[in-house]
Design brief:
With 148 residues, this protein is mainly alpha-helical. The protein is 78% helix and 0% strand. The protein has 2 domains: 1-75; 77-148. The protein has helices at 5-39, 44-70, 85-108, 112-140. The protein starts with a helix and ends in an 8-residue tail after the last helix.
């Protein structure tokens, strides 16, 4: 038996709230893991990466708390993607610079720096493809992505 309209809306709200708390929990785990990683390494790049992860998690959580008390909806992936051609060009160029910087970091520093650099390069390339996909989705659905 299919759920009624009211039950389906309640289910969607429950899973949206659960997803929001899971994202917060993941940010908390990343922040704590970054602190433990920074405390347990003698490598300066590992220390910087661990502190960077912890600081990014704290900033994310504070902004999320601010959005919650302001009544704003929770973040979705689409909030971080561009859908206009002008913004897409700027974002792709910046992300390509980050990817190349990550590869130079990987080539220069062994150990943690190698993996941090490769991670930065891979994350930048993935973000480029996600932004290109968001642009074409917006263009296909009549959003701001169309240039005509």
């Amino acid at each position: 038996m299919a759920p009624s309209g009211m039950q389906a809306a309640d289910d969607r709200a429950l899973w949206a709230e659960t997803r929001q708390w899971l994202v917060r929990l993941a940010a908390l785990v990343i922040g704590v893991a970054g602190l433990f990683g920074a405390a347990g390494t003698e490598d300066p790049i590992g220390y910087i990466c661990g502190l960077g992860a912890a600081i990014a998690a704290v900033v994310f959580l504070f902004i999320d708390i601010d959005r919650y008390f302001d009544g704003a909806p929770p973040w979705r992936l689409g909030d971080f993607l561009v859908d206009s051609v002008e913004a897409l060009i700027v974002v792709v160029v910046l992300l390509l610079v980050l990817a190349v910087a990550g590869l130079f970091l990987a080539a220069r520093f062994p150990g943690v720096g190698y993996y941090a650099g490769l991670g930065l390069a891979v994350a930048s390339i993935v973000a480029i493809f996600l932004n290109i996909g968001a642009y074409f989705d917006a263009a296909e659905h009549g959003g701001t992505g169309s240039t005509a």
